[in-house]
Design a protein that fits this description.
The complex is a heterodimer of chains A (about 700) and B (about 160). By secondary structure, chain A is of the alpha+beta class. Chain A has 3 domains: about 5-195, Aldehyde Oxidoreductase, domain 4 (2-Layer Sandwich), CATH 3.30.365; about 205-275 and about 330-405, Aldehyde oxidase/xanthine dehydrogenase, molybdopterin binding domain (Aldehyde Oxidoreductase, domain 4), CATH 3.30.365; about 285-320 and about 415-695, 2-Layer Sandwich (Aldehyde Oxidoreductase, domain 4), CATH 3.30.365.10. Helix content of chain A is about 30%, strand content about 25%. Chain B contains 6 helices and 5 strands, in the order E-E-H-E-E-H-E-H-H-H-H. In chain B, helix 3 (about 95-100) packs across helix 6 (about 145-160). The chains are: A alpha+beta (about 700), B alpha+beta (about 160). Chains A and B meet through helix 6, helix 8 and helix 18 of A and helix 1, helix 3, helix 4, helix 5 and helix 6 of B.
């Protein structure tokens, strides 16, 4: 921290009169902005009454960040967990990138939040030592008190707050390496009580005095435009106050209630200029993948010299459809444009992107747009988009009043940004013992980041480094990408390319094991037998950790013991977001397809911050993945998305949900991703179980198509 | 040209969580939007608008009801119970069990899940796993909290349940 920021710090503390503040998230925004360049630790306030407020700068979408992130800080602070309250940060410049995605919340805030807590702890200890005229080394912090070891004197954090606020902030406070008291404990979530009594406020629940409700008629065909509008009936519909074009491809209907807006939209007559994509359909889209120009394949990971290999050649192709996130809370956003500023309340995973995208569209600068984050009723990547915020801001500006834009379920299903389709061509050569000496995995499909205008990384989609791994150290490996184009809007959906890559890769490994007439677990363990580091972009994968999750899942699933008649199982593993995961799936085959009875899931995501929340993520990831595997499919006909609601896009319900046993590998490695890594192994493990049952391979998802 | 609002709007009387309310809304307005937009009881959620997901579940004269497809005209004069009024004295046994099992993830569907579970326990105080599966499969949770929901229902049932 520089002298300038140091003075700023003192000034802030004095002005606030509220004891110790590290960061300045709250009262002095300008000061805080100046501070941000010197220290990222804008996370903590301790009030004189002992109340500890920890700022959460990521979005709570069910993954537990409003509990797990404060735990990280509270651990280093030596805080009494019962005194912790949290505050949700909106879009800010104090916290770096606030995107909630990429299974990154814990792994990227682990260091700054630990540092923020440790800084405060050292300052509180110094303050107490000064008060007692003793050496700081003779004092220690525990449970929101500083205690003098020899005399037993103690002072509470609240009592020390004002004094500690006048001390210099240490740049490199000492961090714990052992003795964790909060991190690692299965603490219950701080947000649970509000989520069982109806008081939790999601985006759709947010209200501003004088707020109107809007729904939009959007062109059902990508790239289409509004050609003509007959709004006479809509305008005379009850409660309607405004009907008007928003952008080139939508018409907004504003009313005094959500229902009146929905009803008026039904009365609206829009003629669409359907544009170039009006004849697009799913068959054309998959043909384009099959006919892609593969001479443009980019090799994004290689080992050895692939073409040299000889031996038994095995080839297989796999295919995945578009999928929709379909979070339970449909899209929505509240905006209030007030001439020289615009305030937004959004259930968003990208508050800063919302701010920066909205600003120029309503004629403001980013600093004139304030984005508040509500609770998210599910995200799964759908809320990495900013479309809802843009619409709300534009409608608010058009009507000069606060407005909530509401998407119906059909709006969400048909105007989303979908997990991309992909086609995977895999080939391998086996030696005389059945072990692969060469393997090629070519993914053919459109690029999410490419479609959104982000440049490729090493010639491939910038998501591949986190999601398109291959952890088996086969002598010759080539991972290749052929990027195609599609007009269908693409988005990042939970585990993103890892779902596609994992399905193809782990189905194929199973095919190799079958060709070699070896047990699928033992086959994988053999390939991973040697301890080895695999450098992959900026990740180093370790064979030992992948072995660890396979062995843990297999052991807990009693892999070596026979199953009852009619039961079958499959196994798969995959690494993404720097974590390792494996599933053993146990099924029976029924008339209408597989029935999944039991899933034993194991993950190695480094140090576990909260095992209770990790269990939720594993169980939830498996159920999410089961929907993907069995039924999730968005199809296109006449340029339009066919599916509309939960009747033709059916998430797994309780009567289909297997028992999910969640296990993790104890680890002192830094935390890595948790929310997404538990998704990819499920589909291949399930399809491998189906092969065990039927001796037929499932090479295209969804299984029930 | 905007032709203006209707001169008069019908008035409907409802009893919501024991309190008499009268609302001036169009008769075809689903109860869901009356609760959320008119009465500001936002604990009842909009999920599908088509009776497919159960997020909007409330009790109407004691019967589990999808408020997103029930016109307010058909709810008039009836006793409506929402998540905000489920517990007669503080939290209902199910809400306590939900907390004890730490069920919610995003939490958006949980109001509907709890209202459905309350209806189940009122009919079947000690449901089996199979009975829970059958009854609760009308509700969707995208976060995949089904296992903990089941545990919480058993816990509430064992705690004597239906209040």
């Amino acid at each position: 921290m520089s002298a300038l920021s140091r003075r700023a710090f003192l000034g802030t503390s004095a002005a606030a009169g509220a004891g110790l503040m590290i960061g300045f998230y709250l009262p002095a925004q300008a000061l805080a902005e100046a501070e941000a360049a010197f220290s990222p630790n804008a996370y903590l306030t301790i009030a004189p009454d002992g109340k500890i407020t920890i700022v959460v700068a990521r979005s709570e979408m069910g993954q537990g960040v409003r509990t797990s992130l404060p735990m990280i800080l509270a651990e280093e602070l030596e805080a009494d967990w019962k005194q912790i309250t949290i505050e949700q940060a909106g879009a800010s410049t104090l916290f770096g990138d606030q995107t909630t995605g990429g299974s990154a919340s814990v792994r990227t805030t682990w260091d700054p939040m630990r540092k923020a807590g440790a800084q405060a702890r050292e300052m509180l200890i110094s303050a107490a030592a000064q008060a007692w005229a003793v050496k700081p080394e003779t004092c220690k912090a525990a449970n929101s008190f500083v205690v003098h070891s020899t005399s037993g004197r103690k002072l509470s954090y609240g009592a020390l707050a004002a004094k500690a606020g006048k001390l210099p902030v240490p740049d490199t406070p000492q961090l714990k390496t052992s003795g964790f008291k909060i991190v690692g404990k299965p603490l219950t979530r701080l947000d649970t009580p509000s989520k069982v009594n109806g008081s939790a406020i999601y985006g759709l629940d947010f209200r501003v005095p004088g707020m109107k409700y809007a729904v939009l008629a959007r062109c059902p065909i990508v790239g289409g435009k509004v050609s003509a509008v007959d709004d006479s009936a809509a305008k005379s519909s009850p409660g309607v106050s405004f009907v008007g074009k928003i952008g080139a491809s939508a018409v907004a209907v504003v009313a005094d209630s959500t229902w009146n807006a929905i009803k008026a939209r039904r009365a609206l007559k829009v003629t669409w200029d359907e544009g170039a994509n009006k004849d697009l359909n799913s068959a054309v889209i998959f043909d384009a993948l099959r006919n892609a120009d593969e001479s443009k394949a980019v090799k994004f990971f290689t080992a050895g010299g692939v073409s040299k290999a000889t031996g038994q050649k095995i080839e297989a192709s796999y295919q995945l459809p578009f999928m929709a996130h379909a979070p339970m809370e449909p899209g929505n956003c509240v905006a209030h444009f007030r001439g020289t500023e615009c305030e937004i309340w959004a259930p968003t995973q990208v508050p800063q992107d919302c701010r920066d995208t909205v600003a120029p569209l309503v004629g403001l600068k980013p600093e004139q747009v304030k984005v508040n984050i509500t609770l998210l009723g599910g995200g799964f990547g759908r809320r990495l988009e900013h479309d809802y915020a843009v619409e709300a801001a534009l409608v608010s500006k058009a009507i000069n009043a606060p407005v909530q834009v509401v998407w119906t379920r059909e709006d969400d299903m048909r105007n989303s940004m979908y997990r991309p389709v992909s086609l995977h061509k895999l080939s391998a050569s086996l030696d005389a013992s059945g072990w692969p000496v060469e393997l090629t995995h070519r993914i053919i499909g459109p690029s999410i980041n490419g479609q959104k205008g982000s440049p490729p990384v090493n010639g491939v989609d910038g998501d591949f480094p986190d999601e398109a791994s291959f952890v088996y150290p086969i002598p010759n490996v080539s991972l290749e990408s052929v990027t195609t184009e599609t007009p269908v809007p693409l988005g990042w959906m939970r585990s993103v390319y890892a779902l596609q890559m994992g399905f193809a890769s782990e189905s194929f490994i199973d095919e190799l094991a079958a060709a070699a007439k070896k047990d699928p677990l033992q086959y994988r363990l053999h390939l991973l037998a040697k301890d080895q580091d695999i450098k992959y972009f900026d990740t180093t994968w370790r064979t030992s950790r992948m072995r660890g999750v396979l062995q843990l899942a297999a052991e807990k699933a009693d892999w070596s013991k026979p199953l009852p008649a009619g039961r079958y199982r499959g196994i798969a593993c995959f690494g993404c977001f720097s974590s390792y995961a494996a599933d053993v799936v146990e099924i029976s085959m029924e008339k209408d397809g597989p029935r999944v009875h039991r899933v034993v899931a194991a993950i190695d995501c480094g140090r576990v911050v909260n095992p209770n929340i990790l269990e939720q993520q594993i169980q939830g990831g498996v159920i999410f993945a089961l929907t993907n595997a069995l039924r999730a499919q968005i199809t296109i006909d006449k340029g339009r998305v066919v599916q509309g609601n939960f009747d033709d896009y059916q998430p797994i319900r309780m009567n289909e949900a297997p028992k999910v046993e969640a296990h993790f590998v104890p680890s002192a490695e830094p935390p890595s991703g948790a929310g997404e890594p538990c998704v990819p192994p499920l589909a291949p493990a399930l399809c491998n179980a189906m092969y065990a049952a039927t001796k037929k391979r499932v090479r295209a998802l969804p299984i029930l198509s | 040209m905007f032709s203006g609002f209707p001169k008069t709007m019908p008035t409907f009387s409802l009893k919501v969580n024991g309190i008499a309310k009268s609302v001036d809304v169009q008769p075809d307005t689903p109860l869901l939007w009356v609760l959320r937009d008119t009465l500001q009881l936002t604990g009842t959620k909009f999920g599908c608008g088509a009776g497919l997901c159960g997020a909007c579940s409330v009790h109407v004269d004691g019967a589990l009801t999808r408020s997103c497809t029930l016109p307010v005209s058909q709810a008039a004069g009836k006793n409506i119970k929402t998540i905000e009024g489920l517990g007669a004295n503080g939290l209902h046994a199910l809400q306590k069990a939900w907390i004890a099992e730490d069920v919610p993830q995003c939490g958006y569907c949980q109001s509907g899940q709890i209202m459905a579970a309350a209806s189940l326990l009122a009919k079947t105080p000690h449901p089996s796993d199979a009975e829970i599966n059958e009854y609760m499969s009308a509700n969707i949770c995208r976060c995949g909290t089904y296992e903990r929901i089941k545990r919480a229902i058993h816990r509430a049932a064992n705690a004597g349940g239906a209040q």
